[in-house]
């Protein structure tokens, strides 16, 4: 056990009603913080009031983007307790991102303890209505005041918390996705498989173009041949073609989503024909023309499972199935959220209750 002092906020914020919750706009009263320097490693873990950071204008993260982050959720379960969905999987992924960005790996045991203590302090912020949760954002930034490209010698790790509603305004309703071959997100050997801010900054222009045309998100193709499906801006993507559940493989340019892994595990447990393989946009178009494209859905921490009722590819409009919520999309969503909210038995041990 680590000694984690708690410095409580003097003035507490008014908590919003569940009906007022959007995504990522409100934050709780406290945050978990750990510092790093070369002499002491990761040290001084503490819980302190949520508030502004003091950074010099030359701070390296502002210029070179050496930073990583994660996103997970805590839920108000049917029994009234608070549960965190697969926290250790998310912390392990944070350290995989750290390796790629030359950031010292953080002690997962210490962070896990800090997260639990922070959630206990902030438990009244966890909403209880359907499609609400407490979003958990761990992140690391480089903090040397230095202009020059090299790894920083100092870092700051933080966890902030945000009560949220549904990620997409549509909620659990089908969304429209635009496929782009004008822009690329990542290539193998790059940083597409880790959670670092630059990946998301690079996606904004394409996402704005899609929104102007009435689409919710962008579906990226591979960065070399511009033909193979990769992922959506904030989700991994699944296709159901002629009874087979298909998602692109993790080959170094796609983020290994924890919800993606959850869907794959559940799908195989149910005995569905489930494969991870390269899938071209042309194959998707052909499956649509032949009537074999049954469903498309995304998976991610924020939305959990998000059905897709339209893909726009050049002059082609692809509508899977009957254009509504697919049977499997609904089934995966109900099953995973059922585990998260304590409505179903957690046979795989994914939820940690406080």
Automatic annotation (TrEMBL):
Q: Which GO terms describe its molecular function?
A: L-isoleucine-2-oxoglutarate transaminase activity; L-leucine-2-oxoglutarate transaminase activity; L-valine-2-oxoglutarate transaminase activity
Which principal EC class is assigned to this enzyme? Answer: transferase
Q: Which CDD domains match?
A: BCAT_beta_family (cd01557)
> Record keywords: Phosphoprotein included?
no
Question: Required cofactors, per record?
Answer: pyridoxal 5'-phosphate
Q: Which residues carry this modification: N6-(pyridoxal phosphate)lysine?
A: 195
**Keyword annotations from UniProtKB, A to Z:** Amino-acid biosynthesis, Aminotransferase, Branched-chain amino acid biosynthesis, Pyridoxal phosphate, Transferase
A single Gene Ontology biological process assigned to it is:
L-leucine biosynthetic process
The record, for Pfam families, names:
Aminotran_4
Q: Name the chemical reaction catalysed here.
A: L-valine + 2-oxoglutarate = 3-methyl-2-oxobutanoate + L-glutamate; L-leucine + 2-oxoglutarate = 4-methyl-2-oxopentanoate + L-glutamate; L-isoleucine + 2-oxoglutarate = (S)-3-methyl-2-oxopentanoate + L-glutamate
Signal peptide (from-to): none
Q: What is its EC number?
A: 2.6.1.42
Listed pathway(s): Amino-acid biosynthesis; L-leucine biosynthesis; L-leucine from 3-methyl-2-oxobutanoate: step 4/4; Amino-acid biosynthesis; L-isoleucine biosynthesis; L-isoleucine from 2-oxobutanoate: step 4/4; Amino-acid biosynthesis; L-valine biosynthesis; L-valine from pyruvate: step 4/4
Report the superkingdom from the record. Answer: Bacteria
> Per its UniProt record, what NCBIfam families does this chain match?
ilvE_II, PRK13357.1
Query: According to its UniProt record, which protein family does this protein belong to?
Result: Belongs to the class-IV pyridoxal-phosphate-dependent aminotransferase family.
Designated name of the protein:
Branched-chain-amino-acid aminotransferase
